[in-house]
TrEMBL record:
It holds the Pfam family IspD. This is Ribitol-5-phosphate cytidylyltransferase. It comes from Weissella tructae. It is an enzyme of class 2 (transferase). It catalyses: D-ribitol 5-phosphate + CTP + H(+) = CDP-L-ribitol + diphosphate. The record marks 14, 22 as: Transition state stabilizer. Belongs to the IspD/TarI cytidylyltransferase family. TarI subfamily. Catalyzes the transfer of the cytidylyl group of CTP to D-ribitol 5-phosphate. Pathway: Cell wall biogenesis; poly(ribitol phosphate) teichoic acid biosynthesis. It comes from the Bacteria. The record marks 158, 215 as: Positions ribitol 5-phosphate for the nucleophilic attack.
Length: 236
């Protein structure tokens, strides 16, 4: 089975003083997370769409989804303290309610990337048939430098450098097996789900992201997102 997980557990501290976590702020005509979930609702491949939310905001999220969305595949669960804790929360939900098979896949996406396209979702699902893990990336346009203690130690070949986006897609049983083998220290250091799969020795495929698949983290990002959203409305 193919499961989606929308990560909405943050409280958005980098957005500044706002009454709501950033995923619930308005973008154009509706909350950011609604824009995101609408894209997932359009994908019939998903058997379940799991939304991981901070415990203080779970009922708020349910009420919001009831208002804007009509998709009985959507379920709200509690997010974890760290990203991979949140991933494991979704995996535990799947295991407890549906059981696990060796072909089960989890497609994980940031709630605050509202311009995810159907093409990117489809490419992740298709690539997951070949790889145990898949990352969505765009090629780096600027020169990347690596620095230690304030000094440049390496300038990698730009053509080999990519910027990671989401979704990230994993085989559920493979991720679960590696996570359960990790120490608490490793779990804190390896906060990225794809790093977990690399540690397990799995090859990780990549699919093309999109420059518009931005993550809304700061007030500036929200201003840019409103411009993109308005342009999309004008096209319609």
């Amino acid at each position: 089975m193919i499961y989606a997980q929308v990560m909405a557990g943050g409280i958005g501290s980098r957005m500044g003083h706002t009454e709501l976590p950033k995923q619930f702020l308005n973008l154009a005509d509706k909350p950011i997370i609604i824009h995101t979930l609408e894209k997932f609702s359009l994908a019939p491949e998903f058997d379940k769409i799991i939304v991981s939310v901070h415990p203080q905001w779970m009922q708020y999220a349910r009420d919001l989804f009831d208002k804007y969305l009509d998709d009985d595949r959507i379920v709200v669960i509690q997010g974890g303290a760290e990203r991979n804790d949140t991933v494991m929360g979704a995996i535990n939900y799947v295991e407890e309610n549906f059981g696990l098979t060796e072909d089960d896949v989890l497609v994980m996406h940031d709630a605050v990337r509202p311009f995810i396209s159907g093409r990117i979702l489809k490419d992740n699902i298709e690539a997951a048939a070949k790889y145990k893990a898949v990352d969505t990336v765009i090629g780096a346009t600027d020169t990347i430098v690596r620095a230690v203690d304030g000094e440049i130690v390496e300038i990698p070949v730009r053509d080999e450098m990519y910027q990671g986006q989401t979704p990230q897609t994993v085989n559920i049983q493979a991720f679960q097996a590696q996570y359960n083998e990790m120490s608490e220290e490793e779990r804190l250091i390896l906060s990225d789900s794809i790093k977990v799969m690399l540690l397990a020795g799995h090859k990780v495929g990549i699919v093309d992201g999109d420059e518009s698949n931005i993550k809304i983290t700061r007030p500036y990002d929200l201003r840019i997102a409103n411009i993109i959203a308005q342009e999309n409305l004008d096209v319609k």
